[in-house]
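Human: Not sure, check this?
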Amino acid sequence: MLDKKSPLPMYYQIEEDIKGKIESGLFGVGKTIPSERELSEQYGVSRMTVRQAVSNLVNEGALYREKGKGTFVSERKIEQPLTGMTSFTEDMKKRGMTATSRLIGFSVISAPPDIARKLHLEQGEEVYEIQRIRFADGKPMAVEQTFLPIALVPGVDESIVMGSLYEHIEENHDYKIDKATQVIEATTADQEQSELLAIPYGAAVLHIERLSVLTNGTPFEVVKSSYRADRYKFISEIHRT
């Protein structure tokens, strides 16, 4: 199974073989993989080599450990390309998944200084502040806080934000959404995020802040999101210039 003459390290070959078994379904999601002892016998290597391979896969999120129970196969992460601009609802539809939201906050506030600056608003201008938990096939994926200028998008209510805001904006306000700038940072879940996303306190999350703009150059949305790092990953294709 392993090529001991290969320049590739043994632990790396084991990682790739386990990944292949996960991809093929031989190691099913939520199921335990063989123990270190069993894997070391199967591959003909030391348990230390197996432990390094398994630890690397745990760090990648392909596997997870439960103390006293074993090592399990994680659910596949949702891949989000960093090209094109879609709403969460549109993105889940493309993947054949059902997107739902739970509204945890909806209010009208005076735009905080940083939000007013980004949306080109005067001091004291009002915005909708919308807080939602985003689900894919019933599982929490992200906590999202959205700011929209009331003067630009009047008439938004709770029933509208439970669907796709992008569809509402383009279909009911005669706007065309153009582009967005996103900043992505790695951070850890605070107590509130851990409870809302059903993850341990201090677990890795991807914090994303997006500023969205209409085709006429008007900024219309600031979104601050925290995505589960164990269920989401971003893919980028880059070209040498």
